[in-house]
């Protein structure tokens, strides 16, 4: 009976590779199920082998285990199919380049072997440095120096955490990867809600850019080639700064599953079983939409997208239960309408935080387009 129960549990878990997670804890599990799906698929095979070898519940375990195995293979299959045309689709958006000054031009969008390699790359040593003091609070950033000599572009990373948590240590694997390719990376801390509300984090991000620009010679930063990357709430901060502030030298923006339209997002909240997204926004903006409507409009990056907006890379999963993929769709449409160069990597199986590992299906594809996007915008018109 125990082996049959395990098979049923595994089948239930495998459904997270198809359907959106209904609760917060299941969302966390969904990240593992979709990005480490091979581990769960291997367990399904093991259950079938054990059932056959012990002659216990062979038929039901075999049927349930096989269905679970196929569902768990779905993210890998979808990633492989998406990868087949990814290079062509990206080139259609940004054009092919004969030169590839940063990174590996031979890298493939997706490798089946790479999914077995764990979380990501070897970590690059970084140092913490204060970049501003606001109201007695010292704000610091983690600086990952480019692992190639000379003046190099700099990518400023803004962490997520519902505007009220998180820090610069969040998901450092991509920072190290980019530093290895030859980019400087600055992962910043910013003031958090509810003590500090919008636009405090945006002002902090602008201060970080100013600090990096003022210390460019010491840090070997090419101030004419800056890129901003944000995740989740940090992506809202990054987008708002990129679209509404005149940041000198900013060449591109990378949006990992960020809320682009705060007004629409308040009207279409996440399930409270996953996250009370309205309460999150109220803490950040000082009240509900009907109380402070202008704060929502002023904090909606999509409202500031115009003909002079910077090139943008959007990355979002269709099964995101914290920040609706509708934000990405709406931003994609606005950028298209304004004629802004951009690319939308839409991951059908992925949920919020899929880039926890660079070697999972979502991690590989997103890293591939990030590499090419940054290389493209930092060398545009060179």
UniProtKB/TrEMBL annotation:
<dbReference type="InterPro" id="IPR050300">
    <property type="entry name" value="GDXG_lipolytic_enzyme"/>
</dbReference>
<keyword id="KW-0378">Hydrolase</keyword>
<keyword id="KW-1133">Transmembrane helix</keyword>
<feature type="transmembrane region" description="Helical">
    <location>
        <begin position="57"/>
        <end position="81"/>
    </location>
</feature>
<dbReference type="InterPro" id="IPR049492">
    <property type="entry name" value="BD-FAE-like_dom"/>
</dbReference>
<feature type="domain" description="BD-FAE-like">
    <location>
        <begin position="143"/>
        <end position="335"/>
    </location>
</feature>
<keyword id="KW-0472">Membrane</keyword>
<dbReference type="InterPro" id="IPR029058">
    <property type="entry name" value="AB_hydrolase_fold"/>
</dbReference>
<feature type="transmembrane region" description="Helical">
    <location>
        <begin position="30"/>
        <end position="50"/>
    </location>
</feature>
<dbReference type="Pfam" id="PF20434">
    <property type="entry name" value="BD-FAE"/>
</dbReference>
<protein>
    <submittedName>
        <fullName>Alpha/beta hydrolase</fullName>
    </submittedName>
</protein>
<keyword id="KW-0812">Transmembrane</keyword>
<dbReference type="GO" id="GO:0016787">
    <property type="term" value="F:hydrolase activity"/>
</dbReference>
